[in-house]
Amino acid sequence: MAAITAAMVKELRESTGAGMMECKKALAASDGDMDAAVEFLRKNGQAKAEKKASRIAAEGLTAVAVKDEKTAAVVEVNSETDFVAKNEKFQAFVNAVATQAVNSDSADLDSFMNEAWNEDSSKTVKEALVEITAVISEKIDIRRFQKLTASEGIVVPYVHGGGRISVLVEAKTDVVNDAIKEALHNVAMQVAALAPKYVDMNDVPEEYKEHEKEILLAQATKENEELPEEKRKPQQILEKMLVGRLNKELKEICLNEQVYVKAEDGKQTVAQYIAQVAKANSADLTIKSFVRFETGEGIEKKQDNFAEEVMAQAGLK
């Protein structure tokens, strides 16, 4: 059995919000596997937050580049420290990578890295990365990129927090004016703030729904078993309850079903907001897709213990 360390317990607590003892129990039950421990806590109703993949751990920046109203790209470039993210040379490099991406036809990162560098065709993107790494004196990594091209509308970008989060929203529209652009900018802000996973409920894979049903059923069963026997519900009733719980969860992760953050009544959904804007502008307006990059999303950050480091260097440990 894997040894359960304090650092592992701390990591699981931060990613789930569960108590220390619950985290230790989950890690022991999963033999130290972090993802399995998160699953254990969710099934027992003790995880209060998303999986560790949603945590922000690495440093660096995201950036967007717009070619025209129909084409834009978003990139993430990581650094070891947030200090480097404020460096003008690093920022210029990130913007250059975004420009490279918006002009690229590469479908994956490997081919992207082997392209001729836009700012100096005598070198590749990979070689440009090696050079900036030498200049910055810190590990720099081009982690990901994505390019969006709207065939029947426009792509609208949004950058939040000086590059901590970058969003692209693709919309189908037969009218392009300031009101439509403003509405899509507002939707991009919504994506940045609430991090939906899908545009619409119809986009949610069946495998995801089945997995969540399994989690919700385990939670409901546990809650039911904790009730006095005379108040416990039959299994078929529990399964019917899952429908409501699942729909509520899906509304939180589907952009169109989310409550619009600027809604005056606090009830209007994003889909209703878009319909309202479309009607006011006599437009056929639909959100087709979005991309959201958040710096360091899903990357584990090295935890340095400076006290131990000093002790080790001094020969005291």
UniProtKB/TrEMBL annotation:
InterPro entries reported for this sequence: EF-Ts_dimer_sf, Transl_elong_EFTs/EF1B, Transl_elong_EFTs/EF1B_dimer, Transl_elong_Ts_CS, UBA-like_sf
Region of interest: Involved in Mg(2+) ion dislocation from EF-Tu: 81-84
Domain Translation elongation factor EFTs/EF1B dimerisation intervals: 72-297
Keywords noted in UniProt: Cytoplasm, Elongation factor, Protein biosynthesis
SUPFAM superfamilies per UniProt: Elongation factor Ts (EF-Ts), dimerisation domain, UBA-like
GO cellular component: cytoplasm
Cellular localization per UniProt: Cytoplasm
Principal localisation: cytoplasm
GO molecular function, one term: translation elongation factor activity
Summary of the function given for this chain in its UniProt record: Associates with the EF-Tu.GDP complex and induces the exchange of GDP to GTP. It remains bound to the aminoacyl-tRNA.EF-Tu.GTP complex up to the GTP hydrolysis stage on the ribosome.
NCBIfam families attached to this UniProt entry: tsf
Family: Belongs to the EF-Ts family.
Protein name: Elongation factor Ts
Provenance organism: Butyrivibrio fibrisolvens DSM 3071
Gene (UniProt): tsf
